[in-house]
Write a structure and sequence with these properties.
about 650 residues, seven-stranded mixed β-sheet, glycoprotein, single chain, 5 domains, 6 helices, about 10% helix, mainly beta
């Protein structure tokens, strides 16, 4: 090592492993190192040992604590020679006095040559660099000492130059070569170079360069030259102005931050970008052969302002495997290989305005064996920094797509309500089905199967089906906004219920055995919403009305070869439809537009009102000034043709020739 710090890694489980560092002097007679034992500590001389433990990898850092400055007169804590430290170290990893691994380090560290003394008061006259260069080596800033990375400094010895020979200052400030100037054809860049650059660039050698006399006065800005073609963005680009809803979250490497998500086909995609302010909860089925590790958790995330934040990761071990292992093939236990894999990952993004403030990750690990099918779970939640309630996922007042619709039961003492649809399980029976909340902006259709006998009473069947459907809606009002207050009735809209049976409807009793008419088997939920504004660029959507209706069917017992006293099935469904309406109603049609449809451009191929459309402000194909100039020229030609075609003009022309 040639610097004051060096890092290495210990692979394996570091639980119960003791790390130590010792100084190992070389025996002058034999030239061999002294034997090391496990009785050392994490400090030896001027060296410190720091270990950062992980799951299967531990980072080992060895650092020097002494001062590396060259000695000044009457100074003690400093380096007397340029080659300040020449020592041999050993880092040991022991478990119960048994050495597991050791690392041999040969340290040769040179002193820092930066000048720290008093500055002389003598005034140096610096010539005007526009007309006369300051010197042959501009990076030679310290008299009598070697400046690091200045390869033209005459005070730097060859041994000293070997320390930074590969990282010398380039260009005129290093004194080695002249950098290519912007007008050279070979210096064409991809960012600000216009399309016509190859036609006007200069072919010249670097000896003939204007760089030495090229000085800037004042601030400069990058050129914005309009190209001949629209540039194609091939990379995502860094975000420095904040995220907006739906923007992909970027990493420090200017790449998308990805977490496995479900595609439109229902399959899991491993490299799906995470969108800002969009929650999701997905489950993916994998086995040991198809398991792949995702992004490492040490990847830093772009906060939205150009800064990068580290993920706060907590690792936990799964105790109940039955919730994740859904299928097991019959294999012999002794022959089954197993591997420690990720069972679930829960991400919580703490955000404020357009930036990400913090990321908390909880990772659940467990053992997956060959032949087992694992249900991996990945969740992403966005929590506002200003939110005081953990249930409030967003600080914006309006609804966001994918959030549960807020419901309330104003007729009960506990006003909390629910608006759900079915989530079938097993055979799809209604007795086994669970509930899942209605998500805003997502049309959905769900259902379950009700078992019905051949001797079922039709009135009891209607009541049973109606009770099953009404169990999905435990609410009387729906929140207009996501942050609707339960104490303010103006924040809620009442659910409009169209009951399946009322006084105006004649329900047929159904006297035939095994046939029941007018069964309300379909529940229709229609939610009307509109965009009512935006907060920090995020559209705010508000629910305006909610209607619930029923569709009836005729149920008939399905017989096989003979009708026995067996069980038949009645499928019942619940559908949710979101209808978006304009925030403001459209302008009503005038009587002229209603009566004279031949002037309606939407109903006829010929549109007379748009005869002069290119001269109006609605035409955006060309600049308005060009359209106006072309229109005036056309009007002038039409007027000139009308004058020349008039008979009196020909008489006037003939009389002028006589």
């Amino acid at each position: 090592m040639s610097g004051p710090r060096v890092n290495s890694f210990f692979l394996g489980n570091s639980s119960g492993v003791n790390f130590s560092i010792i100084l190992s002097p070389v025996d002058e007679e034999t030239g061999k190192l002294q034997l090391a034992n496990c009785s050392g500590s994490k400090r030896a001389g001027d060296w410190n040992l720091n270990v950062t433990s992980g799951m299967n990898t531990s980072q080992v850092t060895v650092s020097l604590t002494r001062n590396l400055q060259l000695c000044l007169p009457n100074a003690t804590d400093c380096c007397a020679r340029p080659l300040c430290v020449v020592e041999t170290l050993q880092v040991l990893a022991c478990h119960d006095s048994v050495m597991l691994a050791h690392l041999l380090i040969q340290a040769e560290i040179y002193a820092n040559s930066s000048f720290t003394g008093n500055v002389s008061e003598n005034v140096t006259i610096i010539p005007n660099q526009v007309f006369q260069p300051l010197g042959s080596c501009p990076c030679d800033l310290t008299a009598g000492a070697c400046d690091v990375r200045c390869c033209c400094d005459p005070e730097c010895t060859p041994d000293f130059k070997q320390l930074f020979n590969e990282s010398c200052f380039t260009g005129v400030f290093g004194g080695d070569v002249n950098p290519p100037f912007d007008q050279l054809c070979s210096s064409q860049s991809m960012e600000y170079t216009p399309d016509w650059f190859p036609f006007l660039c200069v072919q010249s050698s670097l000896n003939n360069t204007p760089f030495l006399g090229y000085f800037y006065h004042g601030s400069t800005s990058a050129p914005r030259v309009p190209p001949f073609k629209i540039p194609l963005q091939t990379s995502p680009g860094k975000l420095f102005t904040g995220y907006r809803q739906g923007d992909p979250i970027m990493t420090e490497e200017n790449e998308y931050f990805t977490i496995p998500q479900q595609s439109m086909a229902g399959q899991c995609v491993g490299n799906a970008p995470v969108a800002y302010l969009q929650n999701f909860d997905v489950k993916c089925l994998i086995n040991l052969a198809s398991y792949k590790e995702g992004l490492p958790h040490d990847v830093r995330i772009n906060s939205g302002t150009g800064d990068f934040i580290q993920q706060n990761v907590i690792y936990r071990t799964i105790t109940d495997m039955g919730k994740f292992i859904t299928e097991t093939e019959s294999l012999h236990t002794a022959e089954v290989p197993c591997q420690n894999v990720t069972f679930a990952e829960h991400y919580t993004f703490i955000w404020k305005d357009k930036n990400i403030e913090r990321i908390n990750v909880t990772v659940f690990l467990g053992s997956l064996c060959d032949g087992e099918v694992l249900t991996q779970r990945f969740t992403v939640k966005f929590l506002s920094l200003k939110s005081t309630n953990a249930g409030e996922l967003f600080g914006t007042p309006g609804y966001q797509v994918g959030k549960p619709v807020k419901a309330a039961n104003m007729n009960a003492s506990d006003t909390f309500g629910s608006l759900n649809i079915w989530q079938p399980a097993g055979r799809g029976l209604c007795t086994l089905a669970t509930y899942t909340p209605v998500l805003f902006g997502l049309d959905s259709l769900s259902g379950c199967i009700l078992e019905v006998g051949i001797n079922e009473d039709c009135n009891l069947l209607r009541g049973n089906v109606t009770e099953k459907l009404n169990s999905l809606i435990q609410a009387t009002h729906i929140g207009k906004r996501d942050n609707s207050s339960y104490s303010d009735l103006n924040d809620w809209v009442e659910i409009i219920r169209l009951d399946p049976f009322n006084s105006d409807t004649n329900v047929r009793s159904g006297n035939l055995k095994g046939i029941c008419p007018d069964i309300p088997a379909n529940l229709n939920i229609r939610i009307i919403f509109a965009d009512v504004g935006a907060v920090q660029g995020i559209p705010q959507q508000q629910i305006l009305a909610v209607q619930i209706s029923y569709s009836t069917v005729i149920w008939q017992f399905q017989c096989g070869l003979i009708c026995e006293n067996s069980i038949s099935f009645l499928p019942i469904t619940a559908s949710v439809q979101f209808i978006k309406v304009p925030a403001q109603p459209s302008i009503p049609m005038t009587r002229f537009q209603i009566n004279y449809t031949e002037f309606d451009c939407n109903r006829n191929d010929v549109c007379w009102p748009q005869l002069f459309y290119p001269l109006t402000r609605f035409y955006t194909g060309e600049p308005y000034s060009q359209c106006l100039a072309k229109g005036l020229s056309l009007a002038f030609l039409v007027l000139l043709a009308a004058i020349l075609s008039n008979p009196w003009f020909s008489k006037l022309w003939n009389s002028s020739l006589v």
